[in-house]
Amino acid sequence: MKMDDVPLKVKLILYIGFSVLLVMAATTAIIISTSTAQHEDLAYKKSIEKASNYANQFNSDMQSNMAIARTIENTLTVYNSSDRDEVNDILREVLIANPNLIGTYTGFEPNAFDGKDAEYAGTEGYDSTGRLVPYWNKIGGTMFVEPLIDYESSDYYQLPKQLEQEVLTEPYLYQGELIVSYVSPIIREEEFVGIGGVDVSLNYIDEIISNVTAFEKGYAFTVSNTGILLSHPVHKEWIGMKTLNDFNDTEIAIMAEDILVGQGGNIETVDTTTGEDVIIFYEPVRTGNYSFILVIPKEDMLADVMALRNELILISSLALIFMAGAAYLVAISITRPINEIVSNFEDISDSALKGDLNRRAETDVGVDFRKIPSGLNDILGSLQTYSDDLEKANKELKSLDQMKDVFLSNVSHELRTPLTSIKGYTQNVYDESLGDINGPQKSSLGAVLRNADRLRRLVNSLLYISQAQAEIIEYKFKECHIAKIISNTIMDTIMLVEANELHIEKNIPSDLPTIEADEAHLVDMLNNIVDNAIKFTPPGGVITLGASDEENDLHLTVSDTGIGIPKELIPNLFKKFYQIDSSIRRKYGGTGLGLYICKKIVDAHSGEIWIESEPHKGTTVHIRLPKVRDGGEVGGNEE
């Protein structure tokens, strides 16, 4: 039997099974001889690293908080506007921008801020001294301001004043919250004038540290440099109330002395909570004046499972080496047919991209891969059939499309002549050039004229579409007055406006410059837009045509007080034959060509058109047209 006829599954079993046997035999001896002392050293290092990482993490948090206090101090050091409300706004915004803070504040020496303490004494937000001492905080969940208290005796004010340097206070309880204060002195001209600071609740430390685990049963907590417990996963009642010295343990007392001077280390003792022999690792948080403590049961830390896990790491490494060899053997057996298939596929894809679907894949490959080229050949055969059918259908569609364009063009041309005669004779009768007519007759003839105009615009739209598709539209660009174009539009649509009980007006400046454009097409464009505004504006509404001069362009607008358009539908409005929905088409009529034609005309003028609308509040169509084309210059003002 040839190797190509051997299933891939069998090959994998032979190669990988043999390799695994070798790996297991070679590594069993290594597991037995592994040293327990190595695992113990690794466990110690890992625990110390864990404690150090958490200490560094909280140290970074503390530095960030002190930086915020320093920012408040720097801001108020150079602040000279003497606006107490503005200072309050600064403190409030800092508190809002930093959700980790529980309070922001400043405190100035008597009359050191603006010399007006007496004016504020006893007023809302001030104490009896009137000093600027606002304390913005969200203790209890709601943000509010109150005056600082006990600043004449408390460390948060007196220490920065005495030392003239930044101070981080010991944790203390305030209104039920265990907090710590970051304070920076405000020094002006080498004289202490006040403080800027922030308060941080230490509750978040307890929330984070209480979830820290190590090995199977290890846990963590934090203490201040003086040994006050700041967190504990079980005994929440100890937080802020108990110190390390309260445990009456010699080793813990040694740890408390190290923590007091900011030193890390580890001790072995008995856990007062569980009664187990434990190893306690402690690392200082330099900026925060407190330490992170990790408590790990000794038996847990040095369990055989730890040794086995480390041994398996080595076993896995060796296994990878052997498995790599096995994988290499497997790769050799499957690379050759895959490469042949890929190369064959590349040749076929190149031919297909060039339109040749007659090429077929080679099927003389390994038994495991033969279905791939066979399936590809089936797909290629189907694609060839579909390609032939599509080519035939495409030719038929092109022929039908050409017939449709010719038909539309011929019908449009044929309709224009009788429409012109109908409108002309009707206009003569309407103007009573052929004799007097009564009121009802005149009203009926007005309706005929309006509908003749609408039919004329429809015919023009169809003719424009057929000419656009045949690419035979001609534009005659010359110097034009926009005011004249707007006036012509109003004249063309005034009868329809009045028939719908609307009011139309224009709003353009008298010194509007001229523009290089095709006047007839711009009139058609504005007629289409105004016709839309008339259809979608209820009786009593107003249509406004406006224009303004911009640096290189003229900006035209057509606004109405109509029914408006939902925002999500606006991008579709310039598509050919698009209407919002069937109910709109039935109620207001139209072909969906007007805005499509407007977009084509604006594009021919190298301009842009867009729509702003809000349902029930009206619509504004914006058209921006360049004043000059191809670098030419056109000047002059509208007379």
Taking the alpha carbons of the first and last residues, their distance comes to 100 Å
Low-pLDDT parts are 631-639
Beta content: 15-25%
* Rg measurement, Å: 44 Å
Query: Count of DSSP E strands?
Result: 19
Give the oligomeric state.
single chain
Which structural class best describes the helix and strand composition?
Answer: alpha+beta
Protein name: histidine kinase
Keywords: Cell membrane, Coiled coil, Kinase, Membrane, Phosphoprotein, Transferase, Transmembrane, Transmembrane helix, Two-component regulatory system
GO cellular component, one term: plasma membrane
Main location: membrane
Task: Give structural notes.
The protein is an alpha+beta fold and 639 residues long. The protein has helices at 8-32, 36-78, 84-97, 117-120, 155-163, 203-209, 250-260, 298-301, 304-353, 371-430, 439-470, 482-499, 519-535, 582-588, 594-604, and strands at residues 103-108, 134-137, 144-147, 167-168, 172-174, 177-188, 191-201, 213-214, 218-224, 265-270, 277-285, 290-297, 478-480, 503-507, 515-517, 542-549, 553-560, 608-614, 618-626. α13 (519-535) packs antiparallel against α15 (594-604).
